[in-house]
Design goal:
The structure is a homodimer. By secondary structure, chain A is α/β, with parallel strands linked by helices. Chain A is 25% helix and 29% strand. In chain A, strand 1 (4-8), helix 1 (16-25) and strand 2 (30-36) form a beta-alpha-beta unit. The longest helix of chain A has 17 residues, at 140-156. Chain A is globular, with a radius of gyration of 19 Å.
């Protein structure tokens, strides 16, 4: 029997990445798409509590539709599991394919990762997949790796509370050196705000910046990607710092 | 010389909790308030990239103002550090006092925690403080504990990449048994969506649910709070699951 795979994303249901992913995954699984209606990048793990949420069908092609949720990526997954697919067994959740890397510190701002995290919280084996460029539009290689990794997760399972954050380099398939299991990189942003003035001469700020690449080993996601490896980082939502937990016991509160 | 403490929150600059916190912290520190203009609960670690951000002064009392940011908690802290306080040494960031618990899985949806996480990312020792009730309005005890813990952090420092997530029980001071260093609880939500119909007979969904308390030891934040302890959980933003990292090395990719 074919597995049932829930697909979501943060770029919105009409994004190229989700279509490329769904097209590839449909070859071996029943695919159900539940994704935000509009682009939701950098929303982090937002959920909508103070507003109603609406859902509508959107056709990706004839006879192939998805559910568009007026909410965040995490909303989409929560709603899919609790209502749209309520009594259905879901074997796997895949979030993506995101346009742009979700490596290092970006993970915590990522709507793509948050959809997969929500899946994990709800007990589904979950994978987030990103193509590491904002402009490179060839999603087919990333979809192929997503498909491969999905099959492995269906076979091996994942530890409870763990999801996979997959990043695929934006290069032709012949350039990709293989798959590496990695750690979240230590690279950070040298961000700042540009101060500007609107036509009414009132000031406003706009976020700008670039990533400072501090990771020197392919053990870390950022460097693995830059070295043309597909990066697979197991991540978790238990944020406890266990070293600090031990250390703080000696504080005199 | 007095330390300089940046205060933010997710309930908005006009919330009672931030005023109670600032009033107490001002007794030993220079306080600068930079907080969202409006209520931002459950925004997670959102940042605003596609829109301009405006800032305005808001007076909490005569001669005591804060900067209100039209954005998220993480935006507020980022903007504070990069523009408002650009060349100023900041000794500590405190986010809060939130109205409502930020324990167990709630941490990852929390705007209060995300403001403190952003502080940590930017290199500031950071603390998130929450009062564990949505209705109990007496913030003074929580402010007192925030003040005590702030002084300890100023004295001892925090490991790089680690922040403290503090929750204070919503009970009178005489009932509080002390401070415990805890782990993020395993309690989760049995959430679901209520299906409703609007006056035009179109359906919509509204999130509802309650927490399933699964933690049985005061080692965990949820149980510590229920046992009337102030809970201090050291958390981190390196999400790598190091056990799974080892385990996945044997997968045949």
């Amino acid at each position: 029997m074919k597995p049932t795979i829930l697909i979501s994303n943060d770029d919105g249901i009409e994004a190229e990445g989700i279509y490329a992913l769904a097209s590839k995954i449909r070859k071996f699984a029943n695919v159900i798409i539940v994704a935000p209606y509009t682009q939701q990048s950098a929303v982090g793990h937002s959920i909508t509590m103070s507003n109603p949420i609406r859902v509508r069908r959107v056709y990706l092609e004839k006879n192939f539709f998805g559910y568009a949720v007026e909410g965040t990526p995490a909303d989409s997954v929560k709603l899919a599991v609790h209502t749209i697919l309520k009594n259905k067994k879901i074997d796997l959740l895949i979030s993506g394919i995101n346009q742009g890397a979700n490596t290092a510190i970006n993970i915590i701002y990522s709507g793509t990762v948050s959809a997969a995290t929500e899946g994990t919280i709800l007990g589904l084996p979950s994978i987030a997949v990103s193509l590491t460029s904002y402009t490179y539009k060839k999603f087919s290689v990333a979809a192929e790796y997503a498909s491969k990794i999905a099959k492995l997760v269906l076979k091996n399972g994942l530890p409870s509370g763990t999801l996979l954050n997959v990043n695929v380099p934006a290069v032709p398939k012949s350039k990709i050196k293989g798959i590496l299991v990695t750690k979240q990189g230590k690279s950070s942003w040298n961000d700042t705000y540009e101060k500007r003035f609107d036509p009414g001469n009132r000031e406003y700020y706009w976020l700008t910046g670039s990533m400072l690449k501090l990771d020197e080993s392919v053990e870390f996601d950022v460097k693995a990607i830059d070295s043309n490896y597909v990066s697979v980082t197991p991540i978790q939502y238990d944020l406890t710092d266990y070293n600090a937990y031990q250390k703080l016991q000696s504080w005199k509160f």
